[in-house]
Amino acid sequence: MANDTDKTSELTQEELDRIVETGREAHFRKYLAETDETLTADLSRKYHDAVPPARIEAMLAMPTQFDDREAFDRALAKAGPGPMDGGRVVGYSRFDTEPAHVAVDHLEIPKTIAHERLHQLSDPNAPNELGGALYEGVTEDLAIDAIGAESDQPSQRCYPVERSLAKEAREIAGDDAVERAYFAGDASELRRRLDQQLGPGGLERLQQQIVDLSRSA
Fold first, then answer.
1. How many domains, the chain?
2. Is residue 154 included in any domain, yes or no?
3. What is the average pLDDT across 20-27?
4. pLDDT by residue (tens digit) across 24-50?
5. pLDDT class for 152, splitting at 50, 70, 90?
6. Whether the Cβ atoms of residue 205 and residue 198 lie closer than 8 Å to each other
7. With 0-12 CB in 10 A as exposed, 13-18 as middle and 19+ as buried, what is 131?
8. DSSP 8-state symbol, 200
9. Of 127, 143, 149, 159, which one is least surrounded by beta carbons within 10 A?
10. Is the dihedral of CA 203, 209, 212, 217 positive or negative?
11. Pairwise CA distance, residues 161 & 152, whole Å
12. Environment class of residue 168 by beta-carbon count within 10 Å: exposed (0-12), middle (13-18) or buried (19+)?
């Protein structure tokens, strides 16, 4: 029951609206921080044996930076585009050298967090070993595994062609070979197994398939 001593009665509607919005923003930021903490802990446990301890520690020491669109675009412009950046970028990271950045104006924030955190755990040589497109595909496939579901809205899916070929590589060569290339920067076993199943140059064939399918998409 409100009475004359209720301080809210002294506030204007605009001030009350601002208080409510501030509370919503604080709740949202708390959710983002907790989601980031949970996902990084899960990824650290899952890939503990595949990733050097120092790289895991570096990732854990840098909470994800969550930005509105204007702040995100400024940060991205300052960092410079990545090799696969194109269209509307919703997250970026530069391995374990700086915090990951995630924009908060899209629906798949948990998956984007996982995607950027996996980039931080990956070996710096992985994009060269896998090729930039397949590297992003593997990242996206592992990120979807991490959160346990793929978006049911095609417009919200990232790297659909790259992820499809990454999934095929995992099915053909096995998770261990793909993860060794991704987390250790060593694609020798992946190449050997793909060559066995697809013929010589199996990895390059998958990379070319991504190019061909992307052109026709």
1. 1
2. yes
3. 81
4. 888 999 999 999 999 999 999 999 999
5. low
6. yes
7. buried
8. T
9. 149
10. negative
11. 16
12. middle
Longest CA pairwise span in the chain (Å): 83
Q: Which conformational region is residue 95 in: left (phi greater than 0), alpha (psi within -120 to 50 degrees), or beta?
A: left
pTM comes to 0.87
Strands 65-67 and 101-103: parallel
DSSP letter for 124, please. Answer: T
Listed in sequence order, the residues at least 6 apart from 207 whose beta carbon sits closer than 8 Å to its beta carbon are 131, 133, 134
179 belongs to a structural domain: yes
Task: Assess if residue 197 is contained within a domain.
Answer: yes
pLDDT of 179 above 90: yes
Contacts of 201 (CB under 8 A, 6+ apart): 195
Q: Is residue 93 part of a domain?
A: no
DSSP 121-139: HS-TTHHHHH-HHHHHHHH
Rounded Cα distance between 122 and 133, Å, is 15
Category of 148 on φ-ψ map: left (φ > 0), alpha (ψ -120 to 50) or beta = left
**pLDDT for the residue numbered 182:** 98
Model pLDDT, residue 136: 96
The token pair at 80 is 């410079």
- For residue 136, give its domain range: 14-62+107-216
Residue 194, token pair as written in the block:
């793909």
Which tokens sit at 122?
A: 């990956």
SS3 152: coil
